[in-house]
């Protein structure tokens, strides 16, 4: 599944500010924060290789993002279960069985589920699902959800998954991405989404019952593409 | 299905302001706007009959709200289709078939779908569905959706359905009701919800593509119970 020479958007963003050769007309050009990271490759890829059309894998140093396969669920479920059963960050039933959770998470096309995989060991570091947020007149707005294995936190997996979701949504022609229920006390997620260009456009007062903190707000977060 | 002596909350609200005998301790007492309507019955029901536990029907002068039955779908579908196909107010696929739409609308327990029926002719005037908005830590917030047959507009059906949804949510122990995607250009709905005590707690910019107006905002509306 891994594909070479598929530089992550983040790396290209880092280049953008000082890259006079970047095509100015690219309609789906990124507008993510211009952050440099330790994972950014030192080389500058040839422009024609930056966003290969139809690519399904992304390299982030030692991380690859690729389409999830049915076989990936066995690796996703342990940390999915750990995160959801804790009940602190997702509005999912905390007692989902593996089969039920699989149905909630592993989305068929045209929606999409990906995994972030350690490029060396093949370990699944995190996962994301991406989908249309509403139908009908709301079908131009995408949504996405992310889970990172707590045992592999701090590697930038969440950011890489978030950027991949933005890339996917832009490529699919969505005009915006919306998160419907971001738990306000989940500061790492809120901070990550803000740094990805999302803003809080709604606050549901006490919309979430946190097992330790009690009732906390839920944010609706949104980013135009 | 119709039950006698089941006064609508609205009627009781009208009474509240000048009813010294109303129990002050009622934990689920209404806090809806004190509006008097032409439908309010002149008599004052005995306190023990005001909110009969387990009732499923509500009288509103010439209107009854009762649980929807499978047989009701034949009467709901024509105006459901008319409203959804117009694409101006719901984030539903505009090309839903009757069978698909039935699955979207006719909810099994513990969720609920009701119809508002003309008390004399039995004609279905409108319908509402009521459900939990999120699971897990968000399971204490309900949601609801409403449709009124345009051919029967102006009879207070939407308001009666809205009040019934609030009553149901309160009775079921929800702490709030949230509407996730109210089309901002749908002034009658926004006005109705405001008058029922809902506030806009979020605005998704250009979250809805209106067939005539172009991109308009979507509101998240919310009301504590």
Automatic annotation (TrEMBL), chains A, B:
InterPro entries: Acyl_CoA_acyltransferase, GNAT_dom, Mito_N-acetyltransferase. Residues 1-56 are annotated as: Disordered. Residues 63-225 form the N-acetyltransferase domain. Signal peptide: none annotated. It comes from the Bacteria. Residues 33-43 have a biased composition (Basic residues). This is N-acetyltransferase domain-containing protein.
